[in-house]
């Protein structure tokens, strides 16, 4: 069963029986957040690759750190790279879609592209508008608001029946 939100990795190039195999991702970049002024770090690792680079919103971005090593038991060449995305880069991005970065692994037989990783600014804000859909009556007639923010917090409370992820109600 294929996940429509996460399509399979796309490979380009011709795989020949006698040639070097296409690169294989061992680690792909994942969804990340910029917290305050700490940049988000995206990591990528591939086997059989000669070079790894990132593309963020179609613009090539060279990795800040790149390590290359050969596994002694198998003789397979592995390349590992990471890139940082700063808050300034996110603030300068004015498109309708979210800020996305993809990892490309290249070898003489072709290149492969990873799944896109979304990078967002982590924030927590509360909506104090008590209009329709925001108000909820709690015990003893108290009003509750929903806490909005990214990423969604995970919480569990002792001596209550609320547990799980999502928006956590708080009392005003």
From TrEMBL:
Membrane topology annotation? Single-pass type I membrane protein
What superkingdom does the record give? Answer: Eukaryota
Using the record's annotation, list all stretches that form the Netrin receptor UNC5A-D-like N-terminal domain. Answer: 19-119
Gene Ontology CC: membrane
Subcellular location as annotated: Membrane
Alphabetic keyword roster: Developmental protein, Disulfide bond, Glycoprotein, Immunoglobulin domain, Membrane, Receptor
Q: What is its main location?
A: membrane
Gene3D superfamilies membership: Immunoglobulins
User: InterPro entries, from UniProt?
Assistant: Ig-like_fold, UNC5A-D-like_N
Entry annotated with the keyword Hydrolase: no
Keyword flag Glycoprotein? yes
Q: Which family does it belong to?
A: Belongs to the unc-5 family.
What is the name of the protein in this document? Netrin receptor UNC5A-D-like N-terminal domain-containing protein
């Amino acid at each position: 069963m294929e996940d429509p939100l996460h399509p399979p990795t796309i490979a380009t190039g011709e795989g020949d029986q006698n040639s070097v195999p296409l690169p294989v991702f061992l680690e792909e970049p994942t969804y990340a957040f910029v917290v305050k002024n700490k940049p988000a770090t995206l990591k990528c690792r591939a086997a059989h690759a000669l070079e790894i680079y990132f593309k963020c919103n179609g613009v090539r971005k060279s990795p800040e750190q790149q390590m290359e090593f050969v596994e002694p038991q198998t003789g397979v060449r592995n390349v590992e790279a990471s890139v940082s995305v700063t808050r300034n880069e996110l603030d300068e991005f004015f498109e309708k879609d979210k800020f996305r970065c993809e990892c490309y692994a290249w070898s003489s037989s072709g290149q492969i592209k990873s799944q896109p990783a979304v990078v967002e600014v982590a924030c927590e804000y509360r909506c104090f508008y008590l209009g329709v859909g925001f108000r909820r009556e709690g015990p003893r007639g108290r009003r509750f608001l929903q806490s909005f923010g990214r990423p969604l917090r995970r919480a569990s409370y002792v001596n209550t029946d609320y547990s799980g992820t999502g928006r956590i109600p708080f009392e005003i």
